[in-house]
Design goal:
heterotrimer; A alpha/beta (about 220); B alpha+beta (about 400); C alpha+beta (about 400); A: about 220 residues; 6 helices; globular; C: about 400 residues; alpha+beta; 2 domains; 12 strands
Chain lengths: ~220, ~400, ~400
């Protein structure tokens, strides 16, 4: 059974009187344990697709079944819960909470999920170790390099043991060496923790890590 | 003009922020116009009433009189009043000078009696105060008339009509109690309880005879000629009186309660408005700082294509001037109905005040609108907009072009 | 807890912005506290000083108030001791004392002055403030002499021990005088009061006026001003058909109560303006603060924060700002109120006319401190709630890509 089943997904934006079709009937499945790259030029609909899968946006039509449950049209609170417990996010520009340190940033989703303090401490210790930030755990985001910040974001995305991690251009704001390292880390986590990753990129170099590549062009899958 | 237009367009980009700034500044403008015209009302009506009712422009008294004013000392008088009045009116600054004798008097209608402030006045009193216009029955004194004038309520209470006799008892200059009967020749109404209920006017010759004052009086009330300021007039008079036992005082000395009421009222208003504008300026400063932050990239681009530092400052200043203009218009519109009501219909203040409050608010108190108040509110509105914007604008102009071009909207 | 932590850390990491909002709240709370201190000072003056002097209930001889002459002795209370005994037996009555007021001419060799004579009982509970204001001699001096103010003494060139003549019109309508030694000199805060009043024992006044066993008024002091109505009704019942008028403090000071209401209205309007301007400034600042961090909020929503959670987060920040701003506002306002409570604000001659003495004393009360503190927090909370409402209505995606 597929973890996520996407069927005939459409998304239109309205800009004044013009309607822009960002996605034009996308259908594909995501299996548990996948490491999927969504590839395509700027404006092809990568971000829109990821936002829809991540339930932070609603499609104009079509359905997304997450573990057989259609997440389109759920209430805001229900979607928040799904994001909190089943989905992790990694953003292009890291999006850490500036006033919190590394540990606190990672901890934040666990607090929202009402995890007991002892569980939280253990999980954060484990993740800080995994992403190699043990020496920086009390640093604030603005005291870290781009690569380190993205590692914090990865740890935060994984903290509630989600089934799926969505990463929108996770390497776009990083130099190529760091970018490759981040993808390698994601790949390792995919294999160790059996977490499904879906990430977008327009960097051809990272393709080699992907188990599957979905190419988008003008809002439609080309291969 | 182009910059102003650009400013207008920019403020429409963030309507919520503009609206909140406009609300606070418009209220500030409203308060300003309201407060200033209310204050002008004090000057135009209350101060004028005080001077027209009894204080005149200045008064000349024996230099020791005021120290003992409480006992209405007849022994501290202006002797040879006629000569002093003549020497005053001979100067080109004094229009009219009228002698007065203030004394404590017991007034009786043979049934009841009460103690009032007796005020001996001559025909000239009609030139220094408006008493002539306040007579509702009978008439004011000519120099040959003998009689008394009484307030309307008091006359009614004592069941007296014009021509009826009143009996006056007072202690004269030598400490002897004297008695005199006089006819009621006039009834007045000032709409000001301290005069209407507490003063009885007696023709000065009768007063002199009752009090054995011969040719003297206790004070001379002066009106200056047009164009003579009070300070200037007082200076000249006091120079002239330098070697005598007399001193000239400003009318304000005899309307201390009124002056202090107006001053404390206006003082609190100014403190209040100052703090209000401080808050407004803080609000303006904050939102303009935000505007600058948000538009760092835009400012960088403008600088890159050749805008000078001063252009950036002027652009932002015009933006705040545009906000101020909208707020000023909103403030004026908000104030309009209140101002119309206050200047045309007026409000009844005196009925809410105890009779003992010696401020002549009249039956209704009116605010007095002058174009200058709107101009002042306009200037202060614009100035507070500019003050709040100055620091953010200068900061924006000093941004390095490369930094601001590279600035991300969200870091 | 994490919300409070984020809120406080955010306040610290944007010190200028925090300072701006806190200043705006502090100014508003500061104004409101000062104004409240002023109004309460006026009220306090009324309820302590003015009621101290007038009493809570007065039993007046019928017809006295209708007299043309406020000092008329034509109407007086017969057997006032009976009224006092009845009054003292009523619940809540702390003191009942007779007063005999009259117009008097105080005469020395060279000068004379018209004054209000007050015949008072030396055992009266109303004498406390007069007793405290005596600067020379003592209150007991009323038994065989008179008490005059320092200002009257200066004006009439009199000193303690000197003799004065007091001339009155007696109950028969004939002029009558007696000479009295000055046995006490007093000075209160009100120069109007000082200028007008002289005191002697009621027995001496009765002799001078030829009014044996009579008083013009009996004043009652109650343990609680709210008992006045009931006590007045009891007295009215007891003296039904007798020539007396019974008045409660509300009736005695009707004009002044009206003035307090007018003043209150004026203060409310002023406070309303302050609150609106402060709320606009604060809402704007909080909104900008929030928009500036919209992406941060978008991220939190993306990682699972619910709308209600975001609302709580933003309002927690408003609450913290309100708390700090209100504290600062009280720190500004309370010293001002305390200063004027101690030294008084000299409004000039006018305050005498309002019965407030020559300076106007503020009054600090816990009630207004709490009320103003709460108002400051509420203003900030309202601004933050509005900002939160604006933000949570946006979709997660809009918040994340806020420009």
């Amino acid at each position: 059974m597929a973890l996520i089943k996407i069927t005939d997904l459409h998304k239109q934006y309205h800009l004044g009187r013009t309607t822009i079709a960002a996605l034009k009937g996308i259908s594909f499945d995501i299996e548990a344990g996948d490491f999927i790259t969504i590839l395509g030029p700027s404006g092809c609909g990568k971000t829109t697709l990821l936002n829809l899968i991540g339930s932070i946006d609603d499609p104009s039509s079509g359905s997304i079944l997450f573990e057989d449950q259609n997440i389109c049209g759920l209430s805001d609170n229900r979607k928040s819960e799904i994001r909190l417990t089943k989905i992790g996010f990694i953003f292009q520009s890291f999006n850490l909470i500036p006033v919190l340190n590394v540990r606190e940033n990672i901890e934040f989703p666990m607090i929202l999920a009402n995890a007991p303090p002892r569980t939280r401490t253990a999980r954060i210790d484990e993740l800080v170790e995994t992403v190699g930030l043990k020496d920086f755990e009390l640093h604030k985001p603005d005291e870290l390099s781009g690569g380190q910040r993205q590692r914090v974001a990865i740890a935060r995305a994984l903290v509630n043991r989600p089934k799926l991690v969505i990463a929108d251009e996770p390497t776009a704001n990083l130099d190529s060496v760091t970018g490759t390292m981040i993808i390698e880390e994601m790949k390792a986590l995919n294999e160790q923790e059996k977490v499904t990753f879906v990430f977008s990129t327009h960097n051809q170099d990272v393709m080699k890590y992907a188990k599957r590549i979905i190419r988008l062009k003008d809002g439609a899958i080309v291969s | 003009m182009k910059l102003f237009k650009a400013g207008m367009k920019n403020i429409l980009r963030n309507r919520r922020r503009t609206s909140l700034n406009v609300i606070s500044l418009a209220l500030g403008i409203f308060m300003m116009v309201f407060g200033l015209s209310w204050g002008q009302g004090y000057h135009s009506y209350v101060y004028t009433a005080m001077r027209n009712f009894e204080a005149g422009d200045a008064q000349i008294l024996n230099r020791n009189y005021l120290k003992e004013e409480r006992r209405l000392p007849l022994d501290l008088a202006v002797s040879d009043t006629r000569r002093v009045v003549k020497s005053l009116t001979d100067t080109n600054i004094v229009k009219t000078a009228s002698p007065r004798i203030d004394f404590s008097v017991k007034v009786s209608n043979r049934m009841e009696s009460t103690r009032l402030l007796g005020r001996g006045v001559s025909q000239a009193e009609g030139e220094v105060t408006v008493i002539r216009n306040q007579i509702t029955e009978g008439r004011f004194f000519t120099d040959t008339d003998r009689g008394v004038l009484l307030g309307e309520d008091l006359a009614r209470r004592m069941k007296l009509n014009i021509g009826d006799t009143l009996y006056l008892t007072a202690i004269d200059r030598h400490g002897t109690e004297n008695f005199m009967s006089l006819k009621l020749t006039g009834i007045f109404k000032f709409g000001f309880p301290p005069i209407d209920r507490q003063v009885i006017f007696v023709d000065i010759e009768s007063a002199r005879s009752l009090l054995d004052m011969r040719a003297s009086s206790t004070r001379i009330v002066v009106r200056f000629t047009e164009g003579t300021s009070i300070t200037e007039g007082l200076e000249i008079l006091n120079e002239k009186l330098a070697n005598t036992e007399l001193t000239a005082y400003s009318w304000e000395r005899f309307a201390q309660e009124t002056v202090s009421a107006v001053q404390s009222d206006m003082g609190s208003f100014y403190v209040f408005i100052l703090i209000l504008y401080m808050m407004i300026i803080i609000g303006m400063y904050n939102s303009m700082s935000m505007t600058v932050r948000e538009r760092t990239g835009e400012i960088g681009t403008m600088r890159a294509i050749g805008a000078r530092r001063s252009d950036i400052i002027v652009l932002l200043l015009f933006e705040s001037i545009a906000i101020s203009c909208i707020a000023i218009i909103a403030g004026y519109l908000l104030a309009a109905p209140f101002m119309y009501y206050l200047t045309n219909i007026g409000i009844d203040i005196s009925s809410s005040l105890p009779d003992s409050v010696p401020v002549p608010f009249g039956e209704r108190f009116y605010a007095d609108i002058e174009p200058l108040q709107f101009l002042l509110a306009f200037a202060i509105g614009i100035a507070s907009g500019i003050t709040g914007t100055l620091i953010p604008a200068v900061r924006a102009s000093r941004l390095s072009i490369t930094d601001s071009l590279g600035a991300k909207k969200h870091g | 807890m994490i919300f409070l932590k984020i809120a406080l850390l955010n306040l610290r990491s944007h010190p200028r912005r925090t300072a701006v909002i806190i200043t705006a709240i502090a100014l508003a709370v500061g104004i409101m506290e000062t104004v409240a201190g002023m109004v309460d000072g006026m009220r306090n003056n009324f309820f302590t000083n003015m009621l101290e002097e007038s009493g809570h209930i007065q039993v007046i001889a019928a017809g006295k108030e209708d007299s043309l002459d406020p000092f008329s002795i034509e109407h007086t209370l017969d057997e006032y001791t009976d009224i006092i005994d009845t009054a003292r037996s009523l619940p809540g009555v702390e003191d009942a004392s007779p007063f005999l007021t009259f117009g008097a001419l105080l005469i020395t060799e060279e000068k004379n002055i018209f004054m209000a004579g007050n015949g008072i009982s030396s055992a009266s509970g109303f004498n406390k403030s007069l007793d405290e204001s005596i600067v020379k001699g003592s209150l007991n001096g009323i038994e065989d002499g008179v008490l005059i103010s320092r200002e009257t003494a200066r004006l009439m060139k009199l000193d303690y021990g000197d003799t004065v003549i007091i001339l009155v019109e007696d109950s028969e309508g004939a002029p009558y005088y007696l000479s009295f030694p000055v046995r006490g000199i007093y000075q209160t805060k009100s120069s109007d009061f000082d200028n007008m009043n002289l005191f002697m024992s009621i027995e001496q006044a009765q002799e001078l006026l030829y009014l044996p066993g009579r008083a013009s008024t009996v004043k009652l002091k109650l343990t609680d001003k709210d008992l006045a109505q009931t006590a007045a009704e009891h007295l009215a019942q007891a003296y039904a058909g007798m020539p007396v008028v019974i008045k409660t403090w509300r009736q005695i000071h009707g004009n002044f109560m009206l003035l307090i209401d007018l003043f209150d209205l004026f203060i409310y309007i002023m406070n309303l303006f302050t609150v609106i301007v402060a709320a606009a400034v604060i809402t704007n600042s909080v909104l900008m603060n929030m928009f500036d961090r919209a992406r941060e909020f978008g991220t939190m929503r993306a990682v699972g924060l619910k709308k209600s959670g975001l609302f709580a987060l933003i309002t927690t920040e408003g609450l913290s700002l309100g708390f700090l701003g209100s504290l600062a506002g009280l720190a500004l306002g309370i010293p001002v109120v305390l200063y004027f409570q101690e030294y008084g604000l000299d409004f000039g001659a006018i305050s005498e006319s309002f019965g407030m003495g020559s300076a106007f004393y503020f009054h600090l009360t816990a009630k207004y401190i709490i009320l103003n503190f709460a108002s400051g927090i509420l203003i900030a909370l309202a601004g933050a709630a509005y900002a939160a409402w604006v933000i949570i209505r946006k979709s997660v995606i809009d918040t994340l890509s806020w420009r």
